[in-house]
Amino acid sequence: MTVGAATIGRRSPMSAAATSLGGALRSVLAFVVVVALIAIAWEAAKWVAGVPWRDFLGAPIDPPHNPPFRISQLNDINLPHTWQIVGAFFEPATRRSEFSLGAVLIDAAIFTWRGAAIGFALGAVVGLLLAIAFVHSRLLERALVPYVIASQTVPIIALAPMVVLWVGRDWPSVAIISAYLTFFPVTIAGIRGLSSPDPRALELMRSYAAGWREVLWKVRLPAALPYLFTALKISATASIVGAIVAEAPTGIQGGLGRAIIQFNQQYTSGPEKLWATVIVCAALGIAFFVLVRVAELVVLRNRERTVDA
Amino acid sequence: MTDRQPVVTVAGVDKTFRTGEATTHALSGIDLAIGGGEFVSLIGPSGCGKSTLLRLMGDLTQPSAGSVTINGKPAARARRDRDYGMVFQAPVLFDWRSIQANVELPLEILGLPAEARRERARRMLELVELSDFGGHHPWQLSGGMQQRAAIARALTLEPKLLLMDEPFGALDEMTRERMNDELLRVWERTGTTVVFVTHSIPEAVFLSSRVVVMSARPGRITDVIEIDLPRPRTEATRELERYFELITAVREALRAGHGPAATAREATPAEGEP
Question: The whole model's pTM is what?
Answer without folding.
Answer: 0.83
